[in-house]
UniProtKB/TrEMBL annotation:
The lineage of its organism: Bacteria, Pseudomonadati, Bacteroidota, Chitinophagia, Chitinophagales. This is Aminotransferase class I/II-fold pyridoxal phosphate-dependent enzyme. Belongs to the class-I pyridoxal-phosphate-dependent aminotransferase family. GO terms for cellular component: cytoplasm. Coiled coil: none annotated. The keyword Oxidoreductase does not apply. Keywords: Aminotransferase, Pyridoxal phosphate, Transferase. InterPro entries: Aminotransferase_I/II_large, Kynurenine-oxoglutarate_AT, PyrdxlP-dep_Trfase, PyrdxlP-dep_Trfase_major, PyrdxlP-dep_Trfase_small. Gene3D superfamilies: Aspartate Aminotransferase, domain 1 (3.90.1150.10), Type I PLP-dependent aspartate aminotransferase-like (Major domain) (3.40.640.10). Residues 24-374 form the Aminotransferase class I/classII large domain. Its cofactor is pyridoxal 5'-phosphate. The keyword Transferase applies. It comes from Chitinophaga tropicalis.
Amino acid sequence: MSKLPKVGTTIFTVMSTLAAEHKAINLSQGFPDFDCDPLLKKLVNEAMEQGHNQYAPMPGIMPLREVIAQKISNLYGQTVNPDTEITVTPGGTYAIFTAIATCISPGDEVIIFEPAYDSYIPNVLVNGGTPVLIPLSYPDYHIDWQLVRSRITPRTKMIMLNTPHNPTGSILRETDIEELRKLVTEHNLLVLSDEVYEHLVYEGAQHLSILRYPDLLQKSFVTFSFGKVFHNTGWKMGYCVAPAHLMKEYRKVHQYLCFSVNTPMQYGLSNYLRTPEHYLSLPAFYQEKRDYFLQLMADTKFTPLASSGSYFQLMRYDRISAEGDKEFAERITKEFGVATIPVSAFYEDGKDDHVVRFCFAKKKETLEKAVDRLRKI
Ligand code: GLN
């Protein structure tokens, strides 16, 4: 018996395991190799000491939801009701799954852009939905809205977005929002917007969160991650924002999936988020890493593809080899000691543009050591 016969082990586990086996520098799975802010750990410890160790309320503790609402107002100029429109979740991936489980029934079609983060398709399938896969243009990875229109049917229920985009680093522009708005209105679609890299946008570009647009927000679930932006992916903390009528349904599912989320982490994060500098400093922090990585990589035979956000950088390797990307990624992990993610893993049919993804959320010395090895290829 299998509800997901075609699904194997996630590429993130495959490559991180291979990296460990070969003692390779792991630039594959997306997580930092530096620790989170000591202040944040102190705040969590204090919460534990103060006895915040029992179940949190099902939607999350109110101080955290209030400070999230404040952040949304500061960054996106939107008023969101913390009581009815925000739910704290164990991470971004969970927040996405729960939105799909809330809305998607057998026969519903969900538009997913490829390359796609690898949980999206299985999430839709396991809920009985039908993924409708639409390629992003190559090599700039933007949405071809004409193509999207041609794939709409009376069964289209939801469109999934991801900005900044994993693995490509592309971001939505105002023209995309205009097209999205027309489509959503004409065809009465729901939107699921994965914005876990919201603060990781470079060269002064603005993150066009769906939260900025009240009309779109009325039809949307918008998901976020604390782990991705505050360097503690192992805490598995995130949240979902949706209008009250959708959030009411979302909580019906959430309450029976995990009921509620780690209490002391919620207190720690709520106190940490009171200082806007903690998130306002993130674009510059990560842009410095990205620029440093690109500068180092200029000395190798890899060719970077344009990217505006996230902590990933795609690189073509056609000046090095004509191998398929899985073979190439495996070989350089074993022979040169640097692990990456082959981008074909983000395509259902394994489309291979000979591109690999590097995660640059690493200490300077890690990036230097990795690029020293990559120069030898
Ligand atoms: N989001 C991370 C990435 O893209 C991986 C998370 C995971 O391993 N599930 O690398």
